[in-house]
Amino acid sequence: MATPIPVIDDDIFSHESVRDARAVDDRVRELAPVVRLGREDIVVMGRFDHVSASLADWRSFSSRSRPWHDPSSVRPEILLTDDPPRHTEVRLVIANALSPKALNHMAEAFASDAAHVVERALESGGEVDAVSAICRPFVYKVLPDLLGLPEQGREHMEAFGHMVWATMGPMNRLFHEAMIGNEPVLAWVEECCRRENLHPDGLGMAMFHAADRGEITPAEAKLLVGILLSAAADTTVMTIGTAIRAFCEFPEQYQALRDDPSKTRTAFDESLRWDSPSRMAGRITTRDVAIEDYVIPAGTRCGLLFAAANRDPRKWPEPDRFDIGRNLRGQVGWGAGVHMCVGKTLAQLEADAMFRAMLPRIERFEAAGAAEPWMTTIGHGPVRLPVRLVAA
User: Fold this and answer.
1) Per-residue pLDDT reduced to its tens digit, 257-310
2) Which of 86, 196, 337, 355 is most solvent-facing, going by the fewest CB within 10 Å?
3) Residue 2 within any structural domain of the chain
4) Is the pTM of this model over 0.90?
5) Is residue 1 part of a domain?
6) CA 93, CA 305: separation in Å to the nearest integer?
7) Distance CA 212, CA 176 (A)
8) pLDDT confidence band for 138 (50 / 70 / 90)
9) DSSP state, 378?
10) Could you tell me if residue 49 is inside a domain?
11) Angle at 56 between CA 161 and CA 45, to 5 degrees
12) Is 225 helix (H, G, I), strand (E, B) or coil?
């Protein structure tokens, strides 16, 4: 006989919980292998072995539905909400466009943009908000350039990202705050993703070329441009910001990276593990699933707690320590299985360019105030990060 799943009535998506998300998620993980959130009526798992196995088992944990799934939301409904075989067909279009071979030509432009951003930040006199001075100016330049989006309207990227992340959580106060004033933002997204407004050599146009070849429909091509815009921006902004926060807290690790710049991608991966930009992924069970002594019934909407799993002490020695020498095999910051992040190569190229711009120019980072979290229920990272930049 299955053990009853423990229930907690805490609101883990409130303003207060989001401000303390690391501790909140870790407490849920340690309560039991499977926990039901009474307020939301969903089941969550936070232990590494269970999260990793569930991500890999798309037949049992389907992406076709998930907690708070709303097909009419502002988030483009494609890829993330599909299972194979359609997911595989659509994913291949993006995977080809984002392959190392396809993106290598962008390395020089990324390096130039990163160097320019770091030099401007240093010109400010040393004390900056790392998010607004480094992370966003870089990602919000290189990503729309890569997609071939018009210059006009890019100031809406931050608000659009906030809205998209809000749709992944409950329709609470944080959700409604994110949706305030969304009409001009959504109008911009609608226009900039149209074929006629994309640069002919950009990644966005490659989606429409795939439609011309019959691999996807024109409507799906437009949705994929929106997915790339929404999914590839703020995860990278947050992860670079989190890395800078780690460099302040663990200065010896930044020095180790300066000593061995070949570890830039390892440092980015460790940032994903140390404080993942997504608190959870949503799924729905297609059958009864046994997790240790518990059974999750078929049709249950579930949350797989990425961030908690990536700090599970059962898997990671000293999980709260940022360590670029750590064996990161299996960390779930990129997801796992068929839904592993298709933009991994792009994010790594961006991080590589930014870290390599920092290392010879910035001797160390020092905290100049408390980091402020981005107030969204599922997206997680600093929205403001006061630091002092000590020039090399």
Assistant:
1) 999 999 999 999 999 999 999 999 999 999 999 999 999 999 999 999 999 999
2) 196
3) no
4) yes
5) no
6) 28
7) 38
8) very high
9) S
10) yes
11) 70
12) helix
